[in-house]
Structures are given as C-alpha cells and as structure tokens.
C-alpha cells in the first residue's frame, strides 16, 4: 500500500462565523492510499480549537506512512490498532488514515462501508443545514435561502441570541437546533432553554465552555431542552464523564479519529443511554461521505460541510436538502470531481 498526503483549500460560499471566529477558506488534508490499482480516499479538516493544523496532520501522517506501506491489506484491524496508538495525540491524522483505509477495504470487498458496519440499507436521519452568525437581516436572508432544508442549526453565542432565534422563527417553520459553541454560562443557558423551547427548538449543543463540565450538572437538571456535548465529546474516553451532564453527544470523525473510533463512541453512548448526533467540520465530500456511512446508526445528523463549499474535490454521498443520498459505489462511494 502507498500513502500520499496533500492539502486542499476549500472555499466557502459564505463567510462562516461561529462564537469563536470567522473563516472564508478552510485548508483540509486529503489522503490517498493506493493498493493493487485501487485508490482509497480520506480527509481531515483540522480544527485549531483541538490544536490541529494542516501542518501537524500532514507531518503525523508522513511519520506513520512506513507503517501503512509495510502493512498487508488483510491486516486492517491490527494496522488500525497500531495507528491508533501512534496517532493518539493527533486524532485528525488518525481520521485521515482511517478513512482512506476503510475506503480501500470497502473497494477490495466490493461493498459500501455502511454494509461493513452492519447496516443493511443506508437510511439516515435528515441532516440539518447550518446558519452561521451574522447580522440579523443577513441571517434572515440565509434562512430564506435555506427554505428547502427541513432542519436548521443556528449558530449562537452573541449578545443578541434570542433576537436571532425569534427572527429565524419568523422566517421558517423548520425544526431548529441551536449551537452555542461554548458561548453561554449556566444561568443564561437555563433561561435561554425556556425561551427556545417556546420557539420550538429541538435541542442545544454545547452551551458552556468545555472546561466548565461540572457546571453542566445544573444545566442538565434545569434545562427545558436536551443538551448535546460537542467540544466536551471528543473521543470515546470522554463519554463516561458526560452522564448526568448532557443528554447526548456529537460525534465527529475528525475529533475522534475516524470510522473505527466513531463506532466505539456509538457503542459507548448507547451503553450510557446518551443520544447520538453526528456532526462535521467544513470539509469536502470525502469526510462527509465517510460520516454518512455511520449516520444510519445515530439519532440526529448534521452533515452539511460539503454543501457550504464551492470547490468540492470529490463526489460521494450527497446531501439533497437534508436527505443523504448514497451513490451505488463500494467503499466510501467517492470519486474525484471533474471540474
Ligand atoms: Mg458544535
């Protein structure tokens, strides 16, 4: 097997703003593993919040390339274990390797990855579409543009959060979810949860900063809406600490380290009676397609990363107004976009 690593600058249709900052272009790391004429593709869209950069991901992948290149394709479980040990501190790099390995494995077996995960038919919950933070007028306009999406995820963490959601609700009857991206405190979260419940919001993602995990116990008791952990739910090891503090978790492949690690999180969340949401970064159809294969196993889906960009280097699982449409191709179902 041969591993190659490159970066792709993904250009956003609209400047994307959350509580922590704004982006116009996102640099993603794309991996290719070649074996006997087959090509498997993977991706990691590094996130500085988790101390990931394209450079650190690329460097870590170059370091483990000899392990991948010296391995036999039949030895995947052992290879993934070795990579997991070596890349424990760089889960984005682990994700990029894991995805390309799964893609090659699926192509060798002639099966889509969801089947290899034990899912018969790729029926996934509808995905939300994300509305980033901007002026209320601009957010109204974006909500109108997104009228074909049945579920919207509204980014908050501003000094006008309730006004934003009231304005959004005036524009749409869609199901609304809120992501505060660590922007609130306990009192604010409890008050907001009551107002948001009245506005028909379904749940709130990560209200408090991750380091204020213990304070989530009060939120968990008092919130009028379910709360989902994102920044507090990075890997499978975080899950026991979320019980009694969150109602659910948001799994992202690039946080946890790919499909194999995501499957461990699914199992652990079910064991601890936590609901499961599957999310993404701004990423291409490589990362989104990989997550989509896990999506039939979860309760809520937020896989809109690839439809927020203008220059997707791949075609794969498509998000058609929230519905994930799987191509009839093995592995992750990817093919390079001809543009
Ligand atoms: Mg989030």
Would you give an account of this structure?
By secondary structure, the protein is an alpha/beta fold. It has two domains: 2-110, Enolase-like, N-terminal domain (Enolase-like, domain 1), CATH 3.30.390; 116-336, Enolase-like C-terminal domain (TIM Barrel). It has eleven helices and 15 strands. The protein has helices spanning 54-69, 76-86, 91-109, 113-116, 136-145, 161-171, 186-198, 216-222, 253-256, 259-271, 285-294, and strands spanning 2-18, 21-35, 38-44, 129-131, 151-155, 175-179, 201-205, 227-229, 248-251, 275-278, 300-301, 314-315, 318-320, 323-325, 335-336. The strands form four sheets. It has an eight-stranded parallel beta sheet. Helix 2 (76-86) runs antiparallel to helix 3 (91-109). The relative contact order is 0.15. The mean pLDDT is 96. Magnesium ion binds next to loops.
Short account of what is shown:
The protein is of the alpha/beta class. It has helices at 54-69, 76-86, 91-109, 113-116, 136-145, 161-171, 186-198, 216-222, 253-256, 259-271, 285-294; strands at residues 2-18, 21-35, 38-44, 129-131, 151-155, 175-179, 201-205, 227-229, 248-251, 275-278, 300-301, 314-315, 318-320, 323-325, 335-336.
């Amino acid at each position: 097997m041969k591993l190659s690593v490159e970066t792709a600058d993904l250009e956003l249709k609209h400047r994307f703003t959350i509580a922590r900052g704004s982006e116009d272009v996102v640099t993603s790391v794309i991996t290719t593993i070649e074996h006997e004429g087959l090509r498997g593709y993977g991706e990691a869209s590094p996130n500085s919040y988790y101390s990931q950069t394209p450079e650190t991901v690329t460097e870590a992948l170059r370091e483990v390339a000899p392990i991948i290149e010296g391995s036999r394709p039949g030895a995947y479980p052992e290879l993934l274990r070795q990579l997991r040990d070596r890349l424990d501190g760089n889960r984005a790099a682990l994700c990029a390797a894991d995805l390309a390995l799964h893609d090659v494995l699926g192509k060798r077996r002639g099966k889509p990855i969801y089947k290899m995960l034990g899912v018969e038919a790729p029926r996934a919950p509808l995905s939300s579409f994300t509305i980033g933070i901007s002026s209320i007028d601009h957010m109204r306009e974006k909500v109108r543009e997104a009228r074909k999406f049945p579920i919207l995820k509204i980014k908050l963490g501003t000094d006008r959060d309730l006004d934003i959601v009231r304005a959004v609700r005036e524009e749409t009857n869609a199901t609304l979810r809120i992501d505060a991206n660590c922007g609130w405190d306990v009192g604010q979260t409890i008050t907001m949860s009551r107002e948001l419940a009245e506005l028909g919001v379904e749940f709130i993602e990560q209200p408090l900063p991750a380091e204020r995990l213990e304070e989530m116990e009060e939120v968990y008791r008092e919130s009028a809406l379910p709360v989902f952990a994102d920044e507090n739910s990075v890997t499978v090891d975080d899950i026991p600490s979320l019980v009694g503090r969150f109602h659910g978790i948001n799994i992202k492949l690039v946080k946890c380290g790919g499909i194999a690690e995501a499957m461990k999180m699914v199992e652990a969340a079910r064991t601890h009676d936590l609901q499961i949401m599957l999310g993404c970064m701004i990423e291409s159809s490589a990362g989104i397609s990989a997550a989509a294969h896990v999506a039939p196993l979860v309760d809520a889906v937020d896989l809109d990363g690839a439809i927020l960009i203008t220059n997707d280097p791949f075609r794969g699982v498509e998000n058609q107004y929230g519905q994930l449409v799987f191509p009839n191709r093995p592995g992750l179902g990817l093919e390079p976009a001809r543009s």
